[in-house]
Amino acid sequence: xxxxxxxxxxxxxxxxxxxxxxxxxxxxxxxxxxxxxxxxxxxxxxxxxxxxxxxxxxxxxxxxxxxxxxxxxxxxxxxxxxxxxxxxxxxxxxxxxxxxxxxxxxxxxxxxxxxxxxxxxxxxxxxxxxxxxxxxxxxxxxxxxxxxxxxxxxxxxxxxxxxxxxxxxxxxxxxxxxxxxxxxxxxxxxxxxxxxxxxxxxxxxxxxxxxxxxxxxxxxxxxxxxxxxxxxxxxxxxxxxxxxxxxxxxxxxxxxxxxxxxxxxxxxxxxxxxxxxxxxxxxxxxxxxxxxxxxxxxxxxxxxxxxxxxxxxxxxxxxxxxxxxxxxxxxxxxxxxxxxxxxxxxxxxxxxxxxxxxxxxxxxxxxxxxxxxxxxxxxxxxxxxxxxxxxxxxxxxxxxxxxxxxxxxxxxxxxxxxxxxxxxxxxxxxxxxxxxxxxxxxxxxxxxxxxxxxxxxxxxxxxxxxxxxxxxxxxxxxxxxxxxxxxxxxxxxxxxxxxxxxxxxxxxxxxxxxxxxxxxxxxxxxxxxxxxxxxxxxxxxxxxxxxxxxxxxxxxxxxxxxxxxxxxxxxxxxxxxxxxxxxxxxxxxxxxxxxxxxxxxxxxxxxxxxxxxxxxxxxxxxxxxxxxxxxxxxxxxxxxxxxxxxxxxxxxxxxxxxxxxxxxxxxxxxxxxxxxxxxxxxxxxxxxxxxxxxxxxxxxxxxxxxxxxxxxxxxxxxxxxxxxxxxxxxxxxxxxxxxxxxxxxxxxxxxxxxxxxxxxxxxxxxxxxxxxxxxxxxxxxxxxxxxxxxxxxxxxxxxxxxxxxxxxxxxxxxxxxxxxxxxxxxxxxxxxxxxxxxxxxxxxxxxxxxxxxxxxxxxxxxxxxxxxxxxxxxxxxxxxxxxxxxxxxxxxxxxxxxxxxxxxxxxxxxxxxxxxxxxxxxxxxx
Length: 926
Ligand SMILES: Nc1ncnc2c1ncn2[C@@H]1O[C@H](COP(=O)(O)OP(=O)(O)OP(=O)(O)O)[C@@H](O)[C@H]1O
Fold this sequence. Notes:
Blueprint: E1 10-11, H1 15-35, E2 46-49, E3 56-60, E4 68-72, H2 75-80, E5 87-93, E6 96-101, E7 107-111, E8 130-135, E9 139-144, E10 154-161, E11 166-171, E12 174-179, E13 183-188, E14 194-198, E15 215-220, E16 224-229, E17 236-240, H3 242-246, E18 252-256, E19 267-272, E20 276-281, E21 287-294, E22 306-311, E23 315-320, E24 327-331, E25 347-348, E26 356-358, E27 372-376, E28 385-389, E29 398-401, H4 409-465, H5 469-481, E30 487-490, E31 493-496, H6 498-502, E32 507-508, H7 511-517, E33 526-529, E34 533-539, E35 545-551, H8 557-571, E36 582-588, E37 591-597, H9 604-609, H10 613-618, H11 621-641, E38 646-647, E39 656-658, E40 664-666, E41 673-674, E42 683-684, E43 689-690, H12 696-701, E44 703-704, H13 706-722, E45 727-731, E46 738-742, H14 743-752, H15 771-783, H16 794-808, H17 821-824, H18 843-853, E47 859-860, H19 869-878, H20 881-894, H21 898-911, H22 916-925
Parallel strand pairs: 32-36
Antiparallel strand pairs: 1-11, 2-3, 3-4, 5-6, 6-7, 8-9, 9-10, 10-11, 12-13, 13-14, 15-16, 16-17, 18-21, 19-20, 20-21, 22-23, 23-24, 25-27, 26-27, 28-29, 30-31, 33-34, 34-35, 35-37, 36-37, 38-41, 39-40, 42-44, 43-47, 45-46
The structure holds adenosine-5'-triphosphate.
Protein name: non-specific serine/threonine protein kinase
Enzyme class: transferase
Transmembrane segments: 436-461
């Protein structure tokens, strides 16, 4: 007996039966060859049944449930499928399918076989559990689980069916079994040799067993056995009688060569059909078949890759190695594609052995999360290919064409596409290596630019709005505090509500209180007279000496009230050491009164232009320049720090008041305007102010900016230096008639020609060093430039004056700005009670000075429009009619309007010719 030649003990339990059967088998084999039936393969997740009743494909479902699903024409199989029984694996023969039950590890069969019992095959050794089952044409064998103890090197195989129903005991551990048509084979675990038993006559598989060959796995076919050899190349090796009997079988033809001439390619697995075999190539999972086929047959679909294959008699099916997990079949007698996704392998609870990798759960799942499907790692790469990556626990290894040694068309076409990819990649690499630094540099530059621009913009806006921010804040807070704005917008100006002021610094007085304080507004208390008001000295109940400004009752009360409100509005909001402090107000009936700190030394105008020489001399050069610095600071505060900025519009010597300590305060805000809250742009305002101090740009173009105050301040500086009025009367050489001279027209040419001494007040002694006064004269010249833009801002003026003052005082560091006024001049006004500062000046003295002073003070009030007859009328109301009319008409009549015309000429040169109407106004007023 061939099987005894295997070198192991083979105990035949029922020898007589076996011997009788072998003859029968031989006869049947021949007859079966004619009816072309065979039973084939090892246990797998898929199996194929064949036979007269039609082919059936069965597989374990792809959902990992281990439940079986079948598709085919043998209804006994498809209807009899135990759909609720989970199986570990499947195998099939002629007309039947068997599965290894998951719960009991016992076989369960169904179908229409006359040799295999439906259900669990009988008789079975009690309690036997199987590792693997494998079906031939008419029989089924099961490899029992390995034994322990003394029997651990003994293997038990139980077979059922035609001529095979026996319990076989083998000496040695069996790794796997595979049933052929009417024989079965096993692979020893230790030495990896093959042994077979069963019908030898028809197949000769027993006598042809390659004794010296070691196999990784085996698969029996109809009359042959194939195995995958151990070793690096993992090629298939087949043996048996398929070739010989081919001549006896008319249906077969050698379409794919002899079945024992397996291709020399590394294989992952192999299955045997009736006369053919198929294998899965190890490097790409492609399918390759060889042996005999029947006509007509379909060949293996081109380029398919499969996870698993199962062979029937004349056809083979494989599970596509893709997400769909759909079976495809080729050969004869079966559909080429089947509509049921199946599991690509068996779910095992043990970890994948070395040489296997775990199929990703995305591709196929097992119900038990601790189970996995293990697939054999591919082995070896074909010619022209190299191993790109090793097989790991989770993925198979990859082979790729070695493009440097390409010969085959497939390799060339693969390489050309990958070559172009590589080229493209290299191109991209080069592009990026060249472009990346440029792009990074560009981005960095753009970011830098954005940052610089943003910072510049922010700084610029902040710079521009530095004066306006607080205004916005102010108006915002007002908005929040009250249901609406407490500042009424009036043509771009902002005016606070009177109600609002009441809760501020200004105190509200009753008329009675102020009447009492000023002794009934008696003439004795009168200290000055303005265009719209009388100013009285008064003493409040608490002893505070105050100046009470009472609006003049006139038919034009509305204008007085307007100035009253403007002054009240502004002064209650402003607070600076060199601005006149408002203490309170009274608004009763027609009466409008403002209460100020009392300025003991009256106005700068009185000091500079008063007839009393002693009073004039009180203000020496240092005092005068100090007053100029202080006034400049007050105006600078209005422009630069008040929120919103304030344009005084009436800077002149009579509005610079001098306190007890000879410190200056800027007063009279009746004409002042608040700058627009939202921008620092010029205000288009109708001209108002005092003639001689009026900015030409303002009265010509109605262009009002803070630079208009700078112009007026320049005039004031010239006034301080020269002791002459803004418009003064002067005898010209050889001329007996006085004519009105504009101080700018007179002083600027002298200063520019270096004759500063020619303009200095002759009342005062010249200082030892004239430099300081020259500087001040130059500052004045700049302030009175025709174009506002070309005039310095008040902060620059202040700095220049401070330096000049330091120089004048003989400061060693005369280039440094001097300290704040309060420190330098020792002013303590902010800390002194007003009551402590009483006046040394009598009301009559003031009155006398005032009356004299007002001679040439031409006031163009806010309601003036030019050229306007009203302007001259207004002058009359402000000063002595005779004086003004007389002097101006004299000037006009004398025809000596040279300096006016000069001024007009220079203005024309700078800002264009004046219109006839403007000419009229200029000639009328200068
Ligand atoms: N707080 C004060 N303390 C002392 N004297 C004052 C005070 N305020 C004003 N005077 C005096 O009263 C005079 C008149 O002041 P007022 O502000 O009413 O008019 P003005 O500015 O001189 O002229 P106009 O109103 O036409 O501009 C001033 O010239 C000054 O001499």
